[in-house]
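Side project, low priority. Logging it here so it doesn't get lost.
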Amino acid sequence: MSSRQLTMIGIGGAIGTGLFLGSTMAISHAGPSAVLAYLLCGVVALVISWALAEMVVVHPDAGAFGTIAHCYLGAWAGFVLRWTYWCGQVIAVGGEVVAAGIYIQYWWPQLPLWAPVVAFSLILLGVNAMTVSFFGTLEYWFSMVKVTAISVFVVLGLAIIFFGLPSQPPTGMGNLSSHGGFFPHGVSGLGLAMVFALFSYIGTEVVSVTAAESKNPQKDIPKAARGMVLRMGLFYVLAMLVIVSVVPWTVAAQGGSLHSSPFVKVFDWAGFPGAAGIMNFVVITAALSSANTNLYVTTRMVHSLALHRLAPRWVGRLTKNGVPRNALALSALGMAVAAILSVGSRSGAYLVIFGIATFAAIVTWIFILATHFAFRIRRRKLGLPNSPVRLAGAPWTSGVSVLFLIAVLVSMAFIEGFGPAWQFGVPFSVLLLLVYTALRKRARDDSRNLLKAELERNRKSAPDSESGSSVA
């Protein structure tokens, strides 16, 4: 895949229903300061993506950050990290498919929810079972719809704010300070909004997982990571600024349906014809695009576990086209559960799915930054050359980001509806450690072999470097 496709795949994995609908919850907690929440979370996402780029250009292997954690933190970390990420994303994929099915009912309200859920699931499975180039092309255009919609929204919103419309004067920036001020719920409200803002950036790690199928990882991965996060940050911050400037935050925070989405409210305010119908199409595209990308990522992640003998051997088999279809079938578990639940329920569990996916993603990001810290120390100790890509300010930038992520993780315990995330996440992590204990002998041996192979590759590519003679 090209860097252009990699960038769009990263955007596709991140921009799902969380932005178009989850922004309501961020605004309800923080008011206009939700803009600041998206800005700060964007900086953290940039740090994570750059730390990943630094590591992945050295290790463009299947499994990406999971494989690298396996090598530098130990097999236990690679095992826990990859299974945690896999589980969280599998659940998220099921949630996105359910969301797409719900919004199909906007046009056909009598259609049973399970029907579009099953149909979308089969389509996504078919796309992921084809060649990676076909997947990359389709996801590029999927993501283009979302990017275009957000761009039009931002341009229209800025025109309303500064120039007005023929029938309406410009709104100006007055709504940022009215109705309780910029921080209507104080700093605590801003802290709670961080959870929802951070969820919108989940998916920035997707680019690293595609490294093994990139044409030129050393060039494409850093370029795609930087371009993806900067574009997402610009889109998110400007979009939130438009929302809380055009309409009072007290109005934008009233959620519950497509018509009450902040994006629809702004289009309606501008007299945009068919605003709800247009946004319905965009939201469906966003949900399917995010599900499509994350299904791709979870498939590669569990496939890498099989390669390290930490998942059943049959999961690691490839087709003639190089597609891990058995891993794909296992990663479709979330969609299968979603289809079963959709028979008797609409979307009552969406917030629970949202919380579990966020919990898993934050834990994954903390592991990634810890891996980056070990990556720097271990390579320096072994005398290996620096990566051609370097995270500026590390380890201070990565250390501050870890503290930020821990604070957000703790704040989830104080948000109504997010209790199951902790109730599920902590026991699941303990279970993973217990399972790893039963597998630790072969996993430890495999980790040593993995690092020895890396040292050997570096000796051959840089024979004059002092790489050491043994694994520390």
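Brief comment: DSSP finds 19 helices and no strands in the chain.
Revisit when time allows.
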